[in-house]
Design brief:
It is built from 10 helices and 10 strands. A 5-stranded antiparallel β-sheet has the order 1-2-3-5-4, sandwiched between helices. A 3-stranded antiparallel β-sheet has the order 6-8-9, with no helix packed on it. It has a two-stranded antiparallel ribbon with strand order 7-10. 40% of the residues lie in helices and 14% in strands. It is α+β, with helices and mostly antiparallel strands. The radius of gyration is 20 Å and the shape is globular. A hairpin with a 3-residue loop joins β2 and β3. The longest helix has 22 residues.
Length: 299
C-alpha cells in the first residue's frame, strides 16, 4: 500500500518574515525588538513587539478572519468589560509571500490560568460570570442588531452532531460512551435560546484566561466572538471549575436549566473534538480535555 503524504500548505513564519512585515507596514515600530512567544496557540504564531505590543499571524486559513473581526469589535467592547481584553492597534496586509491579514495588538501581561490555582475559587467563578454578563449586555448603539455581520452569527449545537457522535464512538473505552450519548441527546433535545441574541466569546476556556498574582486579569483570543445563544461560553464551568465554584458561577450568571444542559453539550463536543485531534500528541491537551469531558458528564 502506498502512503500518500499531504503537503503542509501552511505558510512558513519566522522572525525574518515578521520583521519585514512590521518594518514595511508599521514603520513607527520598526526599531522595536521582536521575540517569539512559545508555546503559541494552535491558530496563530505570536511575537512580542517591544514591551507593549504583540504581533499575531494566522497559521491556517481557518483563522484568517480574526484580525479584522477583533480590530472592529474589541476596542468597542473593552470599555464595557470588567477584565482586560486585547486591543488591536493595526491590521497588516499580506506581503512577502505571507497570504493573510495579521494583527498588532496591545500586549497583556499575565500567566495562563490554571485549574490548580483557580478551580476552587468562587471569587474567580463569580468574576467570570460578571464578565459574561457584561459581554451579553453589550449593545453597540450605532449598529442595529439586524445589521450584525454574518460571521458573527453563532452556529447551533446541532451542527456538531455528526462529528460528536463519531468522536464518542472513537473514544469508547477511554470515556463512558453511554453517558456521553445520554448527555449529547439531552443537550440537542433541550429547548433552544428563545430570547434576543446576545454576545458570546465563543472559545471561553482556561487557556484564554490570564492571571496576575493569582487573580484573573484578562480574557484573550476573540476569534469565536459572535452573537446568538450564550450556552457555548458555559464551557469555562467545565474546563476550570469544581462542583462548588461551578454552582457559584451558575448562580451569579443566572443560567436556566435548558441553557445549562446546552452548555454541557458544548463542553462535551468541544472537549471531544480537541481530545481526538491532539491528545495523542500533546499530553497537556489530553489532560485538559479529559477533565473537560468528565466534568461535563458530572454536570
Amino acid at each position: 500500500m502506498v502512503t500518500v503524504r499531504v503537503a503542509d500548505t501552511r505558510p512558513q513564519i519566522d522572525g525574518a518574515l515578521v520583521r519585514r512585515l512590521v518594518d514595511t507596514q508599521f514603520p513607527q515600530w520598526a526599531g522595536l525588538p521582536l521575540k517569539p512567544l512559545n508555546p503559541a496557540g494552535s491558530d496563530h504564531v505570536i511575537y512580542r513587539l517591544g514591551e507593549e505590543l504583540s504581533v499575531r499571524l494566522p497559521r491556517h486559513a481557518g483563522a484568517i478572519g480574526q484580525a479584522r473581526k477583533e480590530f472592529q469589535w474589541l476596542p468597542r467592547l473593552a470599555p464595557h468589560l470588567p477584565l482586560a481584553i486585547p486591543v488591536p492597534v493595526g491590521v497588516g496586509d499580506p506581503d512577502f509571500g505571507y497570504p493573510w491579514p495579521w494583527a498588532v495588538s496591545r500586549w497583556l501581561d499575565g500567566e495562563v490560568a490554571t485549574v490548580e490555582a483557580l478551580a476552587d475559587s468562587s471569587r474567580a467563578a463569580i468574576e467570570l460570570a460578571q464578565f459574561l454578563t457584561a459581554l451579553q449586555q453589550f449593545a453597540p448603539e450605532d449598529i442595529p442588531a439586524e445589521n450584525i455581520r454574518e460571521d458573527l452569527t453563532g452556529r447551533p449545537l446541532s451542527d456538531r452532531d455528526h462529528a460528536t457522535r463519531l468522536a464518542i464512538a472513537e473514544v469508547d473505552g477511554m470515556f463512558d460512551a453511554a453517558a456521553m450519548t445520554e448527555l449529547w441527546d439531552a443537550a440537542l433535545s433541550a429547548p433552544g435560546w428563545d430570547r434576543p441574541p446576545v454576545w458570546f466569546h465563543g472559545d471561553f476556556h482556561t487557556g484564554n484566561l490570564l492571571t496576575v498574582d493569582g487573580r484573573l486579569s484578562a480574557v484573550i483570543d476573540f476569534g469565536g466572538l459572535g452573537t446568538g445563544d450564550p450556552a457555548c461560553d458555559l464551557m469555562i464551568a467545565f474546563t476550570l471549575m469544581t462542583a462548588d465554584s461551578r454552582a457559584a458561577f451558575r448562580d451569579a450568571l443566572g443560567v436556566d436549566d435548558a441553557t445549562w444542559i446546552r452548555g454541557r453539550g458544548w463542553a462535551l463536543a468541544t472537549g471531544l473534538n480537541a481530545y481526538t485531534a491532539y491528545a495523542a500528541v500533546n499530553p497537556q491537551v489530553a489532560a485538559q480535555t479529559t477533565r473537560q469531558i468528565t466534568q461535563a458528564l458530572i454536570g
